Amino acid sequence: MAQSEVKSILIAGVGGQGTVLTARVLSRLLLQRGYDIKVSEIHGMSQRGGSVVTQVRYGDKVHSPIIAPKSADHIIGFELLEGVRALPYLKEGGTIIVNEQRIKPMPVVIGKAPYPDDLEDFLRHCGAQAKLFDAHLLAMKAGNAKCLNMVMLGAWAKNAGLELEEEECLSTVAANVPPKFLEVNIDGFKRGYHAF
Asked: How far is CA 178 from CA 21, 162, 184, in A?
């Protein structure tokens, strides 16, 4: 990365999926690499399963935590529809990593709108470097659906273009996750790291 270049990562999910913890661990990984970091969190009706967006920017010197449309280098979509909703922020040639899981938003739950059925195809043909996978299944295989955030973080770490070594990442995860949840989160991270 050029000395003055700033990179942007947008994390989009649904309340309760752990996007905030993901941003914290991701930021600490980048801090260890010597980058300046700025983080911004935008919460919708997160307690009710609403959208949660976290923006992370890093570089030699970052002046603002806000990601402008068409400027994110990476999008990490914790849920299929949330990943698609975040697409306007992705820059040309950017990468989007998306969990294929579908979590129905309230308008779908109450019958006011259908859940779109063509989102995977849309993402595969949107012009971005799209990586879709069943992160929820990998989290379940690790032993707990709540480690989905570490599965997603692992997938990003492997594909971020920063040559983040697995052991380096795992030590940062270990320093930021409560000990009683560490084993499942480590397993989830490993599964995401080796998903692609």
From this structure: 11, 26, 11
